[in-house]
Amino acid sequence: MLCVTAAPLHAEEAATAADEIMLKNGSRIIGTVVEVRDGSAKVETDFAGTLAIALDQIVSMRTTESVVLQMADDTVLEDQTLTIVDNQLQVVDASGASQSLALEQLAIVNPQPWEMGHGYDWTGLVNFAMTIEKGNSDTEELDYRLESVWRSDDDRYTLKFYGEIDEANDVKSADNWTIIGKYDYFFSERTYWGVNAYAEADEFADLDLRYYIGPYIGREFLTDPLLSLSAEVGASYVNEDFSTAPDQDYPGANWGVHMASNYLGGDSRLYFDQLGVWNLDETSDIIVNTTLGLAFPLLWGFEAAAEILWEYDSGAVEGVEKMDETYAFRLGYTW
Questions:
Q1: pLDDT tens digit string along 119-150?
Q2: Among 26, 87, 91, 143, which has the minimal tally of Cβ within 10 Å of its Cβ?
């Protein structure tokens, strides 16, 4: 439960404030309602910045500007004022008659076009980590990453490409890359099925190319910015080509887990990603890639991130470590 006690109103604030909210604890909030979604209203105020207020704590609300309401059943009501009276949402139907609806039926205020079935929302990031040392030893290291996601009301495309190139005294010490392509179709609000295509190469792990492709089912278990959690599980065909070891292919079971949180505040983002493939022919053979990181915004869409990557391959060829650990500090741009 979120309780907010409003400061006394100054005449200047009262004159410019647009919207009014009354809470169950008797607090009165004057400001501008900028967003309602996931059971919470965001209100910009002069006295306390932006407040997040749980809808179940609101007794009444009235906005002066017209808004678009998207209901839980995906019905869209346009040219409405956001009015709540005695925990009931007041709307006007096509005939001009007023109706009272349960507040739980309200999903989003002013949804984006893609949330109403028009086009895609495009998000992504591109970042680099580079180290150059000159002197007793000449070292050059480059890590790169590109991620792009296109999301509509009922489906999603994902593309990821990342890798590493390192040299010391003109001798290459690391050269690897990974590319991932995914398609998801949501058959309910949070549950989806998809197709996954994955490919990677690592010169110093004797891996010319590993790829797998297959279907999966996934679910977004938590979607709150404080903690989001999604997981996927599926089946795949896996093919591995090595430089010296025998090539192989096998049926696999694959999974993915993604968690993120803004718990630290300041628009920072803690994140955890894991991808795994289990060899169903040789059940002792398992591959698990895990990333743990912290990203925080800079200016104009730029962000910095510090992360740790653990890559485990129980079936690594002779002479190659089963666990590879990488620490990176990245700078990049997000949109």
A1: 999 999 999 987 665 655 567 788 999 999 99
A2: 26
- Asked if the 121-334 domain carries CATH number 3.20.20.80, the reply is no
**CA distance linking residue 228 with residue 226, whole number of Å:** 7
* 182 pLDDT more than 60: yes
Question: In terms of residues, how long is the chain?
Answer: 335
List % helix, strand, coil for the chain (3-state, nearest 5). Answer: 5, 70, 25
Q: Assess contact for 226 and 262: CB atoms under 8 A.
A: yes
Domain ranges of the chain: 11-111, 121-334
Cα 75 to chain centroid, rounded = 26
The residues pairing with 108 across neighbouring beta strands, listed in sequence order, are 37, 70
Lookup: tokens for 322: 């089963």
Burial readout 87-122 (b: 16 or more C-beta within 10 A, e: otherwise): bebbbeeeeeeeeeeebeebbbbbbeeebeeeeeee
Q: Is 15 helix (H, G, I), strand (E, B) or coil?
A: helix
Tell me which long-range contacts 15-18 makes (C-beta under 8 A, separation of at least 24): 16/46, 17/46, 18/63, 18/64, 18/65
Q: Is the pLDDT of residue 308 over 50?
A: yes
